[in-house]
Write a structure and sequence with these properties.
This protein is of the alpha/beta class and 250 residues long. It contains 11 helices and 8 strands. The chain is globular, with a radius of gyration of 17 Å. The structure holds phosphoenolpyruvate.
């Protein structure tokens, strides 16, 4: 692996400010600074400031928002903008998580605008892509992932593309306990890498491509060893300090 591994925790709609603060403090105590890893934490928006408050002396643990709206402000009840996320302490943002796409019906076009908003405000976007089980069984997995990727990347200049982090998260593996094999993950990561290579040439090796979908302490190391897998995005297993530390140090 040529890149610094990126290990990211998506806490989804868990841990309000008080519990998130306690959890982050336990996490910081249990996880020594990771010189050779980038560790990202994505708490709920309402807990960003609380987690940031306990991690002020841990710049190695990067805080991110789980979602943003693509407008900077306005009449969008219930939404969070990139500047607001930044003010609350976020340095990164998840864009296009499968739950945003499939539960909330967000389109590829919306993800492109969100990535643009993230770059406008200096947030590092982590773009999630992935196919459903029906799409995989129909032999369309590569096409779906490339469509999701291209819709976002065609609006980016090369410098921005270079700054993008991509997370391949097959929808059928998220929260299901069914993990892609390292070989399957590696195959899709190669497809993604090739698409980036067509734009950036050899610099494509520096764009991190994470795998996400039922990552657990027991499968993390095998997935990280797979070719073209540069890190992990973890949901359920990141809500347990012991499991998370095992994954973050796998
Ligand atoms: C996720 O939420 O991005 C995720 C991969 O969830 P889980 O690890 O629970 O499958």
């Amino acid at each position: 692996m040529l890149r610094t591994p990126v290990i990211a925790a998506n806490w989804k709609m868990h841990l309000g400010p008080q519990r998130a603060r306690t959890f982050a403090a336990e996490l910081a105590a249990a996880l020594p600074p990771q010189g050779n890893r980038t560790v990202l934490l994505f708490p709920s928006a309402v807990s960003l400031a609380a987690v940031g408050g306990v991690l002020y002396d841990r710049p190695d643990l990067m805080l991110g928002a789980q979602n943003i709206h693509f407008e900077d402000e306005g009449a969008y009840t219930g939404e969070l903008s990139a500047p607001m996320a930044k003010e609350a302490g976020a340095r990164a943002v998840l864009v296009g998580h499968s739950e945003r796409r499939h539960v909330f019906g967000e389109t590829d076009g919306a993800q492109a605008k969100k990535v643009a908003a993230a770059f406008r405000h200096g947030l590092k976007p982590v773009l999630c892509v992935g196919e459903t089980i029906a799409e995989r069984e129909a032999g369309r997995a590569d096409d779906v992932v490339l469509r999701q990727l291209t819709t976002v990347t065609e609006g980016l200049d090369d410098a921005q593309l270079h700054e993008l982090t991509i997370a391949y998260e097959p929808v059928w593996a998220i929260g299901t306990g069914r993990t892609a094999t390292p070989r399957d993950a590696s195959a899709m990561h190669a497809v993604i890498r090739e698409a980036i290579h067509r734009r950036l040439g050899d610099a494509a090796v520096q764009v991190p491509i994470l795998y996400g979908g039922s990552v657990k302490p027991d499968n993390a190391a095998d997935l990280l060893r797979a070719e073209n897998v540069d890190g992990l995005l973890v949901g359920g297993a990141s809500l347990d300090v012991t499991n998370w530390v095992r994954i973050a140090t796998a």
